[in-house]
Amino acid sequence: MKATTFIYDGTFEGFLTSVFEVYEKKVVYPKIMKQEHYKASFFDISEVVITDTHKADRVWKRINEIASSNAKRTIYHAFLSEQPTIENDLLYLLKKLFSTSTPKLIDKDFSDQIILKISKIVKMVDREKHRMDAFVRFKLTLDNIYTAIIEPDFNVLPLNSVHFKNRYADQKWLIYDSRRKYGVFYNLIEIQTVEIEFFNNIALDKIAKEYLCPNEDAFQVLWKQYFDSTNIVSRKNLKLHIKHVPKRYWKYLVEKRGV
Hints:
Order of helices and strands: EHEEHHHHEEHEEEHH
Strand content: 5-15%
Shape: globular
Oligomer: single chain
Number of domains: 2
Number of helices: 8
Radius of gyration: 22 Å
Number of strands: 8
Strand order of the largest sheet: 4-5-6-7-8
Structural class: alpha/beta
């Protein structure tokens, strides 16, 4: 029997809506796939899923009722990984979650290779999230907004936003993911998701000077001088340093300019 592919918009709500449709229609061999990854075939059985917040909420409510807090975190963080088959791996986990008599233990069943795979993916997402927390560098714009452009391997911006709201609660800030073409903006009251076409064509370390506060360049120079002055050359261990600060993150760091 052929599988039925549910094609969704890439949002978490869209994924949960797809799960609802799988159960509502009692599909025996379901697959869930982002619209951007789907390639139609004459022999395919497919269905386009329209994101429905009511259906998504019903699925999430059921997960909340039976899953452990770690399992809920695992589901969301794994989804943010954007791995090619993650939707179907998560569907597998959810089927086990909904059918077992011990749902709060499902995410710890590492004898199951798919659940073990999901756990490893979550660790990678969490590692990327913590590195973004540490390596994001802001520039102050003329409209008094601290702005940073990032390009993480995984879609961790929703996780980073909580950290930066707690850390910079008294400042307006914007972090924009140029790879996924959206950002989060904190206006001193709440965090909003934004899409700004202007940022899609700007290099990660190049926000034009005409948009920056006049003193911003001076602060950037001071920070680099501070870093250079505290760096003990005789204790330099480049191999260890790269292990903790991989080169792919250097593009975010003022102190790494010219290195």
